[in-house]
Amino acid sequence: MLPDLWSLYALMLRSRLLEEAIAKLWHDGLISGEMHLGTGEEAINAGVVAHLREGDAMALDHRGTAPLMMRGADPVLILREVLGRPEGLCGGKGGHMHLFSKEHLSASSGIVGASGPTAAGFALAGQYLCPGAVAVAFFGEGAMNQGMMLESMNLASAWKLPVVFVCKDDGWAITATSKTMTGGDIKERARGFGIPATDVNGLDVSEVWKAAGSAIESARSGQGPSFLQARCVHFEGHFLGFQLIRLVRNPLKEMSKISIPLIRSFLRPGGAGWRARWAGMKTVLKATLSTWRDPRRDQDSDPIRRMRIALQSDPSRLKELEDKMGKDIHDALASALEGVPS
Amino acid sequence: MRTMLFTQAIDEAIAQAMAEDPRIVLFGEDTPLLRRELLVRFGPRRVRGAPISESAFLGAGVAAAMAGLRPVVEIYMADFLGVCMDALLNHAAKVEAFSGGKWTAPVVVRAPCGGGYGDGGQHEQSLWGWLAHIPGLTVLVPSTPADAGGLMLAALRHDGPVIFLEHKLLSEAWLEFLGLGGRRTVKYDVPPEGAKGPVPKTWEPLPIGKAVLRRAGHDMTFVSVGVGVHRAIEAADALEKEGISAGVMDLRTVSPLDKPAICEAVAKTGRLLVVDEDYEAFGLSGELSAVVAEAGISCKYARICTRTTIPYARYLEDRCLPHKPGIMESARRLMKS
């Protein structure tokens, strides 16, 4: 079967526009604390969520806004939730890291790795209450070092639970590059538990859709869990206002704040020898340079852009779709903001 | 006298201790960048980044302490101790007892805690009562830069496990990292005296388990820790105009409690009002009432604590966490009763 690129693009674009609207609310100060967006992982979310049906469950991480909307949650309710309004999806009590929708059997957590046990539990309940249903765990590759995630993979394998583990791999565990924090290959870990593992290009929605389709089909038919490693980028880094991203976007402004205390400490008497100090300085510089060079700054890493190029064959249909999505989110935002003092 | 910001003071005290004691090492998620100033002075061998594997690196910190190092293990937020509590509950806290007093685990666990910036109930908990419930753990909650540095130095010299909780609303670094993110469009109710203040030229350890009376008053005693101390002082200042004289005691250490100081202050005023950002039930506020009752002190008692999961919406959060109007209202009632 071939994917319907138009409907997948509609999901992706709607999600991008919703998250851009949320980013603006955050910058305007209408959202107070942390804000983790899934911009850059749209192809993964759409390629997986498009296969889900009634009775299926989702265990979401701190970037759950987009998959939840793709699953059918009302963007107005999501926007009201992140604005902290009583009419929000969770009455303004959860916020973006703690979105819950019983109707969609979807639960989020801001604890790294928590989607593993949650998906295993949803899948277990599904075996009793809704045979043929699957549970999807969304998480980043940083979570592959969290004990509860690895334990959940083993549990899902031992109990043959219908779980699809979707690892959205952007190569960064907050401010550390994942390769410096992770031993071995994460697909090999999954295989070590007896779980089939596939590498997919998370920027290519067709590829994700096909891989997710076979993983979900296998879970539905009682073959147990699968693991997908889908590579992507997060344009905003770990969260909005992420220091490393700010540093490369506005080096003059940000560098002066950081460099003066850094150099002062580097030169301060007492402490390690120069070799160790320089090794410390290199670590800081390396993190900055890795951000500078990394694919988050490359337009070709944008799954939305790739889709637009692919769909240019029918420009009028593309325009119609984009206009509609733009209007939908614009209207949702206006509705969510009703009564909010500007 | 020099002045410092809250987290700057803690890092300075750690730097002073690291220069004197090569056994001190720091590790945790993102520690190299969060503590970059220590990294460039002490090198990557002593300031390490850890994978997102709290159970492993906290447990390793406990054992490394048993084997002779003095690790400072950073946990991203006190809430995340939920992931790795076993290392504290069943190991760090038990070593001294199980070894018949012959072995200890001098590990310092540094974790940001507390709310007031809109991060929701899984990222803003205080949890000092939950931690202090366990025999064998020392729990420190400073409320000023001077105390933060002095208590960190004491923690680094202490011969057992210490949990050092750094309130995010006082910490310029955490509030910028998790809250502001470079924005000027959001405001937080940061207590100025707690966020920035005078510090000694050279750090000296402050005694663990010693409370301090921040404000004198003869009608009642407010007892608090962390940001609550500043909320209590603001309320006490406002109540003065209404003719109510409230003293404010800053515990600084939740475990062990400074029972003599608490009892002395409450015996004088005859009224105890606990201001506690941690959960109300089964926690610090109830413990304080037990301390005075066991000492045979008769007093009027009330408490202002967090009763529910902290809501995400700022306006709901502001009502949920101890705040000045709530403290004032409770104090007025206590006066009348």
Summarize it:
The complex is a heterodimer of chains A (about 350) and B (about 325). Chain A is an alpha/beta fold and about 350 residues long. Chain A has helices at about 5-25, 40-50, 65-70, 75-80, 115-130, 145-160, 185-190, 205-220, 245-250, 250-265, 275-295, 305-310, 315-335, and strands at about 55-60, 100, 105-110, 135-140, 165-170, 170-175, 175, 195-200, 225-230.
List keywords for this structure.
heterodimer, A: 342 residues, alpha/beta, Rossmann fold, 2 domains, two-stranded antiparallel ribbon, 9 strands, B: 337 residues, 14 strands, 41% helix
Topology diagram in text:
The complex is a heterodimer of chains A (342) and B (337).
Chain A: H1 5-27, H2 42-49, E1 57-60, H3 65-71, H4 75-82, E2 100-101, E3 106-108, H5 115-129, E4 135-140, H6 147-158, E5 163-169, E6 172-173, E7 176-177, H7 186-192, E8 197-201, H8 205-220, E9 226-231, H9 243-249, H10 251-267, H11 274-293, H12 303-310, H13 315-337
Chain B: E1 2-5, H1 6-20, E2 24-28, H2 31-34, H3 36-42, E3 47-49, H4 54-66, E4 70-74, H5 85-92, H6 95-98, E5 108-113, H7 128-132, E6 138-140, H8 145-157, E7 162-167, H9 172-180, H10 192-195, E8 196-199, E9 212-215, E10 220-224, H11 227-240, E11 246-250, E12 253-255, H12 259-269, E13 271-279, H13 284-294, E14 300-306, H14 314-320, H15 324-336
Parallel strand pairs in B: 2-3, 2-4, 4-5, 5-7, 6-7, 10-11, 10-13, 13-14
Antiparallel strand pairs in B: 1-8, 6-12, 9-11
Helix pairs in contact in B: 1-8, 4-5, 11-15
Structure description:
- The complex is a heterodimer of chains A (342) and B (337).
- Chain A is 50% helix and 11% strand.
- Chain A is α/β, with parallel strands linked by helices and 342 residues long.
- Chain A folds into 2 domains: 5-235 and 302-337, Thiamin diphosphate (ThDP)-binding fold, Pyr/PP domains (Rossmann fold, 3-Layer(aba) Sandwich), CATH 3.40.50.970; 243-295.
- In chain A, α8 links the parallel β8 and β9 (226-231).
- In chain A, α1 packs parallel to α13 (315-337), α2 runs parallel beside α3 and α2 (42-49) runs parallel beside α8.
- Chain B folds into 2 domains: 2-199, Thiamin diphosphate (ThDP)-binding fold, Pyr/PP domains (Rossmann fold, 3-Layer(aba) Sandwich); 212-336, Rossmann fold (3-Layer(aba) Sandwich), CATH 3.40.50.920.
- Chain B is 41% helix and 20% strand.
- Chain B is built from 15 helices and 14 strands.
- In chain B, α1 (6-20) runs parallel beside α8 (145-157) and α4 (54-66) runs parallel beside α5 (85-92).
- The longest helix of chain B has 15 residues, at 6-20.
- The radius of gyration of chain B is 19 Å and the shape is globular.
- Chain B starts with a strand and ends with a helix.
- Chains A and B meet through α9, α10 and α11 of A and α1, α2, α3, α4 and α9 of B.
